[in-house]
Write a structure and sequence with these properties.
Layout: H1 2-20, H2 32-56, H3 66-85, H4 93-99, H5 107-110, H6 130-145, E1 149-151, H7 157-166, H8 168-171, E2 175-184, E3 193-200, E4 208-215, E5 227-239, E6 244-256, E7 264-266
Parallel strand pairs: 1-2, 3-7, 4-6
Antiparallel strand pairs: 2-3, 2-5, 3-4, 5-6
Length: 269
């Protein structure tokens, strides 16, 4: 009976997250087919466990007590109760302030090659061998360098960001159009405006905030969490807090846009 409750509870929770659209905040949306597969398998296994339980208790003529029925109902309700009372929240600039954003520290600067910090750029290199990763990113780079204007969408956002950070000099001078929410750098809000989106590589465990530094003449007029669509030229600028050059956008046109229904972007492979 316990196995049936666990399996059916998992099916309930996944169904709830799928129907409410919250599942995309936990895993890469490109992997939803795996969730459907696991839901089907868990339902089948739950039915099998129920059949076995009924079969094993077939000879028992006593009725299930009120206590047993209540306990079973509570156990099956736990997944839904978790989904209802521990809701997901919309991420914004406050999360960036709380977590901070940095480039990974070098082994030489830390003395520990296991030190990791949050990435500004997506990094999928640890999922591939060095040569495979290099070949993949060369293909991505060529795909976008051949465009007169690099149009960044929700579908290719992570891919483009990774390519720009991997090959900043080669993308310098290219025209780009992208959207994201405003994050005002607390060290210099008058000049440093980042345009970010929250992204997921595989699941929430490797999620982060990704985007580019932008150069606005009217930077002071923007506020944290404003969603903007900008177009301009990719360049590199020295960013003092990180003591290094960052790819950035010299903005030529900008307009405010509404917050997208799904604020997350995902890495496609």
């Amino acid at each position: 009976m316990i196995r049936f409750l666990i399996l059916s509870g998992y099916f309930e929770l996944m169904m709830y997250l799928q129907i409410t659209g919250k599942l995309d905040q936990y895993i890469n949306a490109h992997y939803n087919y795996l969730i459907y597969l696991s839901m089907i398998l868990s339902l089948i296994l739950a039915i099998v466990q129920m059949y076995l339980w009924v079969k094993n208790n077939k000879q028992s003529s006593h009725l299930t007590t009120k206590f047993q029925r209540t306990t079973a109902l509570l156990i099956m309700s736990v997944p839904l109760l978790i989904g209802l009372f521990f809701p997901t929240v919309s991420l914004d600039a406050a999360i960036v302030d709380a977590k901070g954003f940095n480039f990974p520290l070098s082994k030489e600067s830390t003395g520990d090659d296991q030190v990791k910090t949050q990435y500004l750029q997506p990094d999928t290199s640890f999922y591939f061998t060095k040569s495979d990763y290099s070949d993949m990113m060369e293909k991505v780079k060529k795909k976008y360098l051949n465009n007169d204007v690099i149009t960044v969408t929700s579908e290719n956002y992570m891919e483009v960001m990774e390519a720009i950070y991997d090959f900043p000099s080669e993308f310098s001078g290219k025209q780009i159009e992208m959207s994201g929410f405003v994050y005002l750098d607390p060290t210099d809000q008058a000049h440093n405006v980042f345009l970010f989106r929250f992204g997921i590589i595989h699941c929430i465990a490797d999620s982060g905030v990704f985007g580019l530094l932008t150069q606005f003449e009217e930077a002071k007029s923007f506020k944290n969490n404003q969603w903007l669509n900008v177009s301009g030229t990719i360049q590199t600028d020295y960013y003092k807090p990180f003591k290094r050059n960052l790819p950035s956008i010299k903005v030529e046109t900008v307009k405010e846009i509404s917050t997208p229904k799904n604020q997350y972007v995902y890495r496609a492979f």
